[in-house]
Amino acid sequence: MNYEISGVSLDTLFAKPAVNLLRIAAAAAAPGGELDIETLQSMRAQVARDVLDDLEPAECWPELARGLMSQTPSRMLRVLRRCDALAVLLPELDALFGQPQSASNDELVDIGEHQLRVVDETVRANAGLIVRFAALLFNAGKADSPPEHLPAHYRHVERGLTRVHAVCNRFGVPGDFRDFALLATAELERVHRAAEMRAGSIAAMLERVDAYGRPERFRNLLSLCACDYRAFPGQAGRPYPKAFLLDKALQAALALDPALLAEAEETTPEDALLAARTTAIALALGSERWAGDD
Length: 294
Known about the structure:
With 294 residues, the chain is mainly α. The chain has helices at 17-27, 37-48, 57-68, 73-82, 86-89, 91-94, 111-124, 129-137, 156-171, 175-192, 199-208, 215-230, 241-254, 258-263, 269-285, and strands at residues 100-102, 108-110. It has two domains: 10-89, Orthogonal Bundle (Hydrophobic Seed Protein), CATH 1.10.110; 100-290, no CATH class. It has a two-stranded antiparallel ribbon. It is elongated and about 70 Å long. The chain starts with 16 loop residues before the first helix and ends in a 9-residue tail after the last helix.
């Protein structure tokens, strides 16, 4: 592969090596930011000398954020991987490369490569940093799925949640970033399966993710799910149908007829509200098969 230097002086690598290594990788995500082989070799040599051991999270997070908010964040991550820094800084992401996952038509994709495509999709979606950060991590639990089960990844959510906590602690990311990354890890595949749910399941999911109280965060979750969907082969640029489905369900639940609540037979206000929302969603989606309770 041919590389072009983009205004990066090798002298800057040695001013404060750990920070500047990240700074150069982040700069690679900007337009025209491709690095030449000499720069990559110098960065690899520094990683081999353990310069990243001296990196403080407060110094690391701003550079990672800058790269994620640039035009091609995957280029930053590829640079870090090529100089062996990704395995030090984000081993949870680095371990996903080479792991298979099913796509449509029984095709298999490399999860690590898929995550890079998802991160670049967040740029096309004009997503905020909180979504771009979560895009790195929501599959983190799939790195060590039992080989006999591949390409299925049983119980990966539990493993993933632990790894999200580890990454957030390592970089000192804001609490709302951590919470959204945990939410995405737990709920993304449930959103993808929304069309198979009954109305009761959808109403319960909307409640579980606090879509009623925090609709903006829910929209961020749908945006991330859409980016994941479009990162699979053959789906780039396609509309994400689950976003329309769940937004319609949310709007129906928020605007439910008070009479539905009055007619509910459940003994507690919480159960009555859930039942009324389930009925409102079933009516909005226009199919009896949505009306059943789980």
